[in-house]
Structures are given as C-alpha cells and as structure tokens.
C-alpha cells in the first residue's frame, strides 16, 4: 500500500508498507478470503501509518482484460453503447458478468475511426476486492487496472516528451506490459504468467 500526495514537484510518496498475504487467499486476482485479506490490509495501513480511509485500488489477474479497439468516429455516449453491444467480440467471458469501461485514446490512423481502450473485469474479481477493502474498514473510491495505476502513481502519463517508453511489471501471477508515447497509451497487455508460474 502506498499513500501519495500531490505537490508542486509532482506526486510525493508519504507512506508505504508491504506485507505478504496468506497463501491461497488470492487466485488469478480474485480474493478467495476477503476477511483474511481485509485483516492484512488493516495491518498494512497500521504498519505504514497510512491514515486515509478512502482508497483507490489496482486490480490485476486473468479476470481483467484490456484491449485497444477501433470504432467509427462517434461521440463518447455512442461509444459506450457500441461497446455494450460488441463487448462479447473482445472478452473471453460474458459481458453480463463483468464491469466494462473505456477510454477514447484519439483518432485512429485510418480516417473516420477512433481508437478506444476497452477495459473489463469480471464481477467476481471486483466484488472480492470491494469485500476485502470493506473488511479492512476502508472505502473504495475507484478501481483501475494495475498497468494504468502504476503509470499514474509514477506520474508517467503526463510526460511531455514524445518518445515511446515501456513499462513491464512482473507480478506473482501476471505480467503487465505497457507502451506509451508522451501522454498517449499505445499498447497494454496483461500476460497470464508471473513470478510464481
């Protein structure tokens, strides 16, 4: 867990703490025992002297999908409807069993199209995280997929230069690969293997 604060120089790290989680309490990103993880979170906050009770959460695992897709040029509300209509083309699970969101990246190279970052997480994963956070006595304000959360916490999404850069995060169960140019996300993939596999 980390606690950040915005300062004139950018994001400032106020507090952090790391503790192991009991074996078997997280499988493919889904928290199988929210009460146990809630106790660990509570202990992490106490150990790290983190006082904020409203938190932002990064989620990862095989139940999370990030895809860059193209649609005909249209307003954001129409993109939302198009994604709901076509989500099953891009997801390995039923759209009805998932929380789906998107971000319009910008115009595609093909004229008349836009590039959209589609993000989906299975309800089971989202609900398990909410249960663990609430078991710790905290309030989830927002959830983000881990690659994007890392970019934000490092302040990398606001880089002024136009060079392509990459970020690879090798986790226990998944590996996140993110490529961005300046403040524009170009590619991201969550690969279903990590340090424990």
Description:
With 197 residues, the protein is an alpha+beta fold. The protein folds into two domains: 98 residues, Nucleotidyltransferase, domain 5 (2-Layer Sandwich); 56 residues, Dna Ligase, domain 1 (2-Layer Sandwich). The chain is 24% helix and 41% strand. The strands form five sheets. Strands 6-8-7 form a three-stranded antiparallel β-sheet. The protein has a three-stranded antiparallel β-sheet with strand order 10-11-12, covered by helices on one side. It has a two-stranded antiparallel ribbon with strand order 1-2. The mean pLDDT is 87.
Keywords for this entry:
197 residues; globular; Dna Ligase, domain 1; 3-stranded antiparallel β-sheet; alpha+beta
Give a nutshell description of this structure:
This protein is an alpha+beta fold and 197 residues long.
CATH topology of the largest domain: Nucleotidyltransferase, domain 5
* Secondary structure: helix percent: 10-25%
Query: Helix count?
Result: 4
**Main beta sheet:** 3 strands, antiparallel
CA-based gyration radius: 18 Å
The named CATH superfamily of the largest domain: ATPase, nucleotide binding domain
Instruction: Say how many strands there are.
Output: 12
Q: What strand line-up does the widest sheet have?
A: 6-8-7
Q: What is the name of the CATH architecture of the largest domain?
A: 2-Layer Sandwich
Mean pLDDT: 87
Distance between the ends: 24 Å
The total domain count is 2
Task: Indicate the structural class.
Answer: alpha+beta
Q: Strand percentage, roughly?
A: 35-45%
Low-confidence stretches: none
Overall morphology: globular
Order of helices and strands: EEEEHEEHEEHEHEEE
* Assembly state of the chains shown: single chain
What is the CATH class designation of the largest domain? Alpha Beta
């Amino acid at each position: 867990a980390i606690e950040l604060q915005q300062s004139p120089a950018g994001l400032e790290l106020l507090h952090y703490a790391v503790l192991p989680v009991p074996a078997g309490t997280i499988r493919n990103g889904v928290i199988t025992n929210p009460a146990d993880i809630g106790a660990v979170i509570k202990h992490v906050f106490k150990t790290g002297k983190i006082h904020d009770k409203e938190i932002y959460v990064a989620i990862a695992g095989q139940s999370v999908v990030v895809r860059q897709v193209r649609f005909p040029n249209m307003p954001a509300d129409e993109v939302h409807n198009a994604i709901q209509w076509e989500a099953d083309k891009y997801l390995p699970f039923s759209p009805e069993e998932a929380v789906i969101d998107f971000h319009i990246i910008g115009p595609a190279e093909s004229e008349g199209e836009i590039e959209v970052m589609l993000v989906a997480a299975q309800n089971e994963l989202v609900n398990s995280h909410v249960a663990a956070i609430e078991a710790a006595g905290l309030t989830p304000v927002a959830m983000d997929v881990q690659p994007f959360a890392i970019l934000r916490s490092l302040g990398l999404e606001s880089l002024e230069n136009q060079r392509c850069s990459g970020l690879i995060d090798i986790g226990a169960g998944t590996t996140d690969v993110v490529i961005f140019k300046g403040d524009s996300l170009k590619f991201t993939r969550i690969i279903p293997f990590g340090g424990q596999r």
